[in-house]
Amino acid sequence: MSQAAQYGTSSQMDGLISYVIRGWPGWQVILTSLLVLMTYDQFMYIKRKGSIAGPSFKIPFMGPFLQAIHPKFDSYLAQWASGPLSCVSVFHKFVVLASDRDIAHKVFKSPGYVKPCLVPIATDIMGPNAWVFLQGRAHAEFRRGLTRLFTNKALSTYLPIQEKVYSDYFSRFVAGTQANGGKPTKFMSFFREINCALSCRTFFGDYISQDAVKRIADDCIFYLVTAALELVNVPLSMYIPFTKPWAGKRTADAVQAEFAKCAAACKANMASGAEPTCIVDQWVLHMMESKKYHERIAAGEENVTKPTNLIREFTNEEIGQTMFTFLFASQDASSNVLHRLRDENLSVRGGDRNRPFELTMYDFLTYTNAVIKELLRHRPPVIFVPYVATKPFPVTPDYTVPKGAMIVPSCYPALHDPVAYPNPDSFDPERWITGDAESKTENWLVFGAGAHDCLARKYVPLTMAHMVGKAVLELDWEHHATERSEEIRVFATLFPMDECPLTFTERR
Questions:
Q1: Is the pLDDT of residue 264 over 90?
Q2: In a shared domain, residues 23 and 111
Q3: CB–CB of 94/405 below 8 Å?
Q4: Looking at residue 6, what is its pLDDT?
Q5: pTM of the model
Q6: Which of 310, 404, 405, 435: disulfide with 94, CB 3.0–4.6 Å?
Q7: Residue 408 and residue 387: Cα distance in Å, rounded?
Q8: Domain range spanning residue 427?
Q9: 295: CATH
Q10: Whether 276 contacts 282, CB under 8 Å
């Protein structure tokens, strides 16, 4: 057949289809298009699912979106128990969940196949150039500079400002109980605020105002931004006014702008010769030392001592954005335990319960550290870490994650593995002292693994030891348990469903 004949036949076919469609009522065209799209959506789900666990069919288009709006922890447990790999699909976004410890390690350590995404909308809310989303050399450049901010020497400079935060908020805890007439008060909002204040002050010291800290605690990390960063959102919802993604984006931009102002104030202060007292001070000091080194080399000087942290100069906006990602990442026993904690913390302070915490005390807090490790294992602050496949990823010999799909390695199952941690649902600090929990390093996924593991793996236990030690020495409290105290609410991290009703009094 000639090319002209072929063209004529094609044109005739197109004309015939157009004629048929023009003859249909409008509702019939819409219905047919909808059926075609539903069939395609279902076909692609089944194709991507392959042999792994998951529903045989999905709810057209949205999948389990309604369940994702208010996720239930029991649903995650059921999903993890369904198989080492399982899947869901929401608004045509295919998500693979990995509950197997070894598969989780493989995902964490395969930057050639995956990159962190938190959730699909996170790059829009936090900014596509945020360092946590970078790969390769760009990521390594940021990480090299940030790692030196968490050495023991650097961490010791943050302790005095953290001591002030604890003193301030512990007084507020007592005052909150008094204001409520000594009756139990839901303290989760207080705990969210102290966590946020601790992070803001550690990052920016006195460069950030208390009003700004309060606004950020109320409006940012634990509410608007956290609510926006759901695993899957309605497509394009970030551009629809008053939706959660729209509010989250506006809030994130405002907080990053506030942090950029703090960075500018820090640079001016450090240029005057001030001593570093917070994380940004340390970071800017390293920038200044690096700049001076490069200037001396460029001037032809010889035998110039190279700084321990040779980095480029980061802009105020880059600093603000980086501290914002840190802020988001910093989200969240028997009487015998309490007595042992008090005795140990009083001992390392030489019997003076008002003595401020010092870095040298940390290594002598054996039982306190065991309690902290058990807290992080029993109720880990992160239960999974979403990644997106940048190309087809053969995670097992039998299954390849499609390009563009999310792959979500889970931390919780490894931390509750009964083989590694007998009676995993029991809170037992002794497993870290007389047991062999310390040797189960492959299961210790609290801080992830691989190139994007958490920089704060030393900072978090130190901060918790500081807070716990000061609290047990200065406060008495009573937990007024309810029938929902052991129910878990998932909101970025894990919370008690009853918002933790407590009463606090000052120890005499």
A1: yes
A2: yes
A3: yes
A4: 46
A5: 0.84
A6: 405
A7: 6
A8: 334-379+419-445+458-508
A9: 1.10.630.10
A10: yes
